[in-house]
């Protein structure tokens, strides 16, 4: 698989593509990523998440190359991945100032 999955500091998950050298998915639950892969690639990731073979967030960051994503986009994405879930939910629901 030309990608790996990682757990974010806020407890959600992301997918890093080794093809484009940047994250392609972030702030997803395990269930969302599994459902997307089953739908898109007909590949069930349940065993992958249960095996605990995911990259750490810090390992994932070391793979980033600004070829297909600007540093500004990368910084914004990192900030979102590091934002606590309750703050993300408040922001999505329009309760955050």
What's the structural blueprint in terms of helices and strands?
Layout lengths: L2 E5 L5 E5 L4 E7 L1 H12 L4 H6 L5 H7 L7 H12 L2 H8 L5
Antiparallel strand pairs: 1-2, 2-3
Kindly list the characteristics that best describe this protein:
3 strands; single chain; about 100 residues; three-stranded antiparallel β-sheet; alpha+beta
Can you walk me through this structure?
The structure is a single chain. The chain is of the alpha+beta class and 97 residues long. It has one domain (3-92). Helices cover 46% and strands 18% of the residues. The chain has helices at 30-41, 46-51, 57-63, 71-82, 85-92; strands spanning 3-7, 13-17, 22-28. The chain has a three-stranded antiparallel sheet. A hairpin with a 5-residue loop joins strand 1 (3-7) and strand 2. The protein starts with a strand and ends in a 5-residue tail after the last helix. The relative contact order is 0.20. The model has no long low-confidence stretch (mean pLDDT 84).
The largest sheet, given as strand count, sense and whether it forms a barrel, is: 3 strands, antiparallel
- Percent helix: 40-55%
Please compute the radius of gyration using only Cα atoms. Answer: 14 Å
Low-confidence runs: none
Q: How do the strands line up in the largest sheet?
A: 1-2-3
For the termini, the CA-CA separation is 40 Å
Task: Provide the number of structural domains.
Answer: 1
């Amino acid at each position: 698989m030309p990608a790996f999955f990682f757990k974010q500091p806020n407890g959600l998950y992301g997918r890093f593509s080794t093809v484009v050298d940047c994250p392609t998915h972030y702030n997803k639950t395990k269930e969302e990523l599994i459902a997307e892969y089953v739908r898109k690639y007909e590949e069930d990731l349940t065993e992958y998440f249960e095996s605990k073979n995911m990259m750490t967030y810090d390992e994932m960051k070391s793979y980033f190359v600004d070829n297909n994503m600007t540093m500004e986009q990368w910084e914004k994405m990192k900030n979102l991945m590091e934002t606590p879930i309750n703050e993300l939910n408040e922001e999505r629901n329009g309760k955050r100032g």
